[in-house]
Design goal:
Length: 390
């Protein structure tokens, strides 16, 4: 009986000491247990510190880098980047060191024409080429395997892999309805070999209008709502049309759909927003590229009273749903998001603290401690950055 009592005392002392250590550690910032990302979210902010940048300086002088546009990280840690204007795929290791590239401009087997999407499916690399409207499939060393061609005139604008091996593709098709030009956006569930199974969502989105005076031309329609979506664990998709702050979660295996929404204050379009929109416009002609808008375009552009409800939806490493609302113009540099559980339960609005200007559409979680995203440098070039979450 004496032995058991001594053992009991040791166990109690050990437990109290462990509890003391845990509480001491919790006093220090940056020490949170990120076994669950919601631990960090409930502080109301996450700090994102750049630990790796991949841009033109990572490549040898004899490797042309023109427009890094899309990426994924492989299981081995290698990073595959599509170079839209160089018509090839560039591969760097986990430290950012260049390894090799594959593809060249053309329409033949293994050629690429404006590669815009990448996906890693099993041990194969799927490359979507907007110029050829097809998928070219390679092994991880860049050896060409086969093509998958699309005969109809619609283009792939996004591709994501579900955890059951199926794919979700977003297609875009041009349409004209009297004096309105736009895109018909469609989400399609596909098999791993790219054959369509069923349509999940479809919506026409206005982009431009036609005016006839003083001469026919297309006028952009700014701040139009759009389709936003991402994949979730359990072969599910979250998607929405950004007109309202409401969302759908589609269980594709059981073909069941649930809906959730949340209150959100609409953000007005200001005179500063209008000026910035015109300043960013680019016009291409035989004489070169012109930036800005002429008076005729300004006079005929109609701005809505409010911006769309949000600009992007992404899923984090744990499968939480992150929604990025629009900000007032004076807070545009601030990036924040609303966190929802997969059930749709609201958790917290979270601020991203970083000195880099992140584009929410480009953010991807590679772990609970790391996110990747493209950022524009001073030369307006895309730089891929790995951030550590603190």
């Amino acid at each position: 009986m004496r032995v058991n009592l001594e053992r009991f005392k040791k166990q109690v002392f050990g437990g109290v000491f462990l509890l003391f250590v845990v509480n001491i550690i919790a006093l220090f910032p940056g020490s949170e247990d990120l076994s669950c990302l919601q631990t960090a979210y409930k502080r109301g902010y996450i700090e994102c510190q750049p630990i790796l940048e991949i841009g033109i300086d990572n490549f040898p002088d004899n490797v042309a880098v023109k427009r890094l546009d899309y990426f994924f990280t492989s299981v081995s840690g290698d990073i595959y980047l599509s170079d839209y204007d160089a018509n090839n795929i560039k591969v760097v290791d986990s430290s950012g060191k260049f390894k090799f590239s594959f593809g060249k401009k053309g329409r033949g087997p293994g050629d690429l024409l404006y590669p815009s999407m990448l996906a890693n499916i099993a041990d194969l690399i799927y490359v979507y080429e907007r110029g050829n409207n097809r998928f070219s499939i390679f092994n991880q060393k860049g050896l060409f395997k086969k093509h998958f061609n699309y005969k109809e005139k619609r283009y792939v604008t996004d591709i994501k892999l579900l955890d059951n091996g199926m794919l979700v593709l977003e297609f875009e098709k041009y349409y004209q309805d009297r004096l309105i030009f736009g895109r018909e956006c469609t989400l399609v569930l596909c098999s791993a070999d790219l054959n369509p199974i069923r349509t999940l969502f479809q919506r026409k989105i206005a982009k431009e209008k036609v005016i006839s005076k003083p001469k026919p031309r297309l006028i952009p329609m700014p701040f139009q709502p759009k389709l936003c979506w991402d994949v979730l664990p359990g072969a599910k998709i979250v998607y929405s049309y950004s007109e309202k702050y409401e969302f759908w979660v589609h269980d594709v295996e059981h073909d069941k759909i649930s809906r959730f929404s949340h209150s959100n204050n609409p953000v007005k379009v200001t005179a500063e927003d209008e000026k910035q929109f015109f300043d960013r416009l680019l016009f291409f002609s035989r004489t070169g590229v012109r930036k800005g808008a002429d008076q005729n375009l300004k006079n005929n552009t109609d701005f809505p009273e409010f911006k769309p409800a949000f600009k992007a939806i992404i899923s984090d490493y744990d499968g939480n749903i992150l929604v990025f609302p629009y900000q007032p113009f004076h807070d545009e540099a601030v990036v924040s998001f609303d966190v929802f559980e997969r059930s749709g339960l609201f958790v917290q609005r979270v601020l991203i603290k970083t000195d880099k200007k992140l584009n929410p559409k480009n953010i991807r979680f590679s772990s609970r401690r790391n996110i990747w995203g493209f950022v524009k440098n001073d030369d307006d070039e895309n730089v891929l950055i790995n951030f550590e979450i603190n």
